[in-house]
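Our consortium's second objective concerns turning raw sequence data into structural hypotheses that experimental partners can test. To show how far this objective has progressed, the report includes one record in full. It was chosen at random from the queue rather than selected for favorable results. The single chain below, 168 residues long, was entered without modification.
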Amino acid sequence: MKSLLTLALAAACCAVLPLHAGDGDRTPIDFTLPKLGGGELALSELRGQWVVANYWATWCAPCRKEIPDLSALHDRRADVTVLGLAYEEVDPEVFAEFLLEFPASYPILVADVFEPPAALGPPRVLPTTFLIDPKGVLVKTFYGPVTSGDIVAAIDSPPAAAATPAAR
C-alpha cells in the first residue's frame, strides 16, 4: 500500500511536467501484451498507423479523465489507434468493472507491473502516454495528463529534421 501511495503522490506532483520527445532513436519498437478479455496484441500489428500507448490505473484520477477524450480520438481518426496499458496489479474483473463506469472504445492491454514492456519501461508517473509513428518509432512521450489536441498537434507537426531554416 505504501508503494501505491508513493506512486500516486509522484503522479500528482509530476502531472504538470512538459512534453518530452522520444530519445532520438529511430529504431522501431515492439512489444506484445495480453488483451483484457483474452488474446494478445503486438505493437508491430499496428504498423502503418499512429499508436497512442497510454499507461493508466483505476485509482488514477487524471487517467479516468483522459479515457473519454482518448476514446473520441481513437474513434475519430482512422490513422490513429489508442492502446490503454493497464498498469496495476489487480484481477481482470476489477478492470472489467472499472471499464463499465469509464468505458474505453480502444483496446485495453494488461502490462505486468514487475515486467513492463522493455521498449517503454515502467511509467515515471501515471498517466504516461507514448506516441509511436506509423513505422513503429517512439517519437514523443507525454508525462502526466494529455489531451487529444496535444496528440493531434504532435502528429500533425512536421518533424524537426524536415523544418525549413529561418530566412536570413
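The partners drew two points from this record. The first strand starts at residue 20 and ends at 21. Residues 88 and 153 are 29 Å apart (CA to CA). Both points have been shared with the crystallography group to help prioritize constructs.
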